[in-house]
């Protein structure tokens, strides 16, 4: 089965197959792949830092079932919700003295913010574009 590709306002009901995602180093940084079961069968998805942080903050573990939705604001800013809750909702709930996130919980949050992640990714892409425009080839490229 193909990996899940999140599109704005499309809901995906999933059940985690493992407690933690498979992690690997990719061209643009750390990749996190979550194995899940859906109504169509076994699948998975690559989680952005924001989605990964939300899954961890909500304490989702193997066997937990939930709905992931990618949202889009009027300003074209994308974010994720799990069962209708965003990271902002969790933070607001936490500040209202009914913590959704227990400070003693041991969940992992990326050391880099989403902005750092995308900034780093943009820098790598800009360098790659400059190299292509200058005609410079990388070692693993075939010179056609």
Computed CA radius of gyration, to the nearest angstrom = 18 Å
Q: Number of DSSP helices?
A: 3
Strand content: 25-35%
Ends distance: 34 Å
The tally of beta strands, per DSSP, is 6
Low-confidence region ranges: 97-109
Structural class by helix and strand composition: alpha+beta
Q: Largest sheet, described in full?
A: 6 strands, antiparallel
Shape: globular
Q: Which percent bin holds the helix content?
A: 25-40%
Order of helices and strands: EEEEHEEHH
Query: What is the average of the pLDDT values?
Result: 82
Describe the structure.
This protein is of the alpha+beta class and about 140 residues long. The protein has a domain at about 10-110. The protein is built from 3 helices and 6 strands. The chain has helices spanning about 50-55, 85-95, 115-135; strands at about 10-15, 20-25, 30-40, 40-45, 65-70, 80. Strands 1, 2, 3, 4, 5 and 6 form a 6-stranded antiparallel β-sheet that branches. Strand 3 (about 30-40) and strand 4 form a beta hairpin. About 15% of the residues are buried. The model is unreliable at about 95-110 (pLDDT under 50).
